[in-house]
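Lab notebook, bench 4. Continuing the backlog of folding jobs that were queued last week. Each job is logged with the same field layout so the records can be merged later without manual cleanup. Today's entry covers Universal stress protein, a 288-residue chain. Filled in by technician R.K.

JOB TYPE: sequence-to-structure
TARGET: Universal stress protein
LENGTH: 288
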Amino acid sequence: MIDRILLPVDDSPESRQAVGYALALADAFDATVDALAVLDSEVPGVFDEGPTGEPVASAARVAARTALDAVGERAAAAGVHATESVVVGHPTEAILDAVDTRAVDLVVLGAHRRGRLARFLRRSVAEGVARHAPVPVLTVAGPATDDPPTLGRVLLATDGSESARVARTWAFELAGAFGSTVSALYVVETRLGSSGVLRRLLEERGEAVAREIRVHGARTGVPVETAIRAGDPAQEIRAFAAQRGVDLVVLGTHGRMGIDRLVMGSVAASVLREADRPVLTVRPRPRA
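JOB STATUS: finished
OUTPUT FIELD FOLLOWS
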């Protein structure tokens, strides 16, 4: 499922935390990690000049090289094969170009606003990559730590759409690899049906989706719990994750086009923007 992981890095604590997730996933799936440092072409100082006008390494380039060297050292210690590269360009575009040209299966990156590489992995870049990348994107947010990541509980936010089914595949594959429990959450969006027949239809839809996920859990041998809540989808997802002590949130980026659009793009963007823990966003498969 995962053969090659793209790991954009910089010199921040959040990026170091993302490295831990990328290496853990690479170890679990016997994958290669492609570490990438992007020097933002719009930030002054990417190229400095020496005494005779020749280009010399700027502070950003030194920071990039340091970050890549650290990935190499950690990968070697973990027994994971890793490659390293530096490119100059707009961060989001450079990452998306790397996704296209390197045939990666997953992107793992930190989300923050600090570091010498300026705008590289700030949240807007992470959101742009998650929105446009044709492969799943794991955005690592939350308290920065160098401790090995734990995935004891995976939250699957679902609406039963095609995008959510693809997200389900990823949630269960990861849970199986790490011995995790999957907590599946369906949210009845109350602004679409606060009472009466419409509300009941939405609840019945959620019950059907929950049954399908429990069957899938029994078939794959992954422990599952299901829950149905009512309210604002993004708020309910965040609240459920906090209450259950979830280690990873998995959701699709495009949901149903009907009245029960739980995992629609705006919901995924809201969850990602306010995330206090890692979030894996998954796009639906392209139609033939």
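OBSERVATION: The two ends are 20 Å apart (CA to CA).
SIGNED: R.K.
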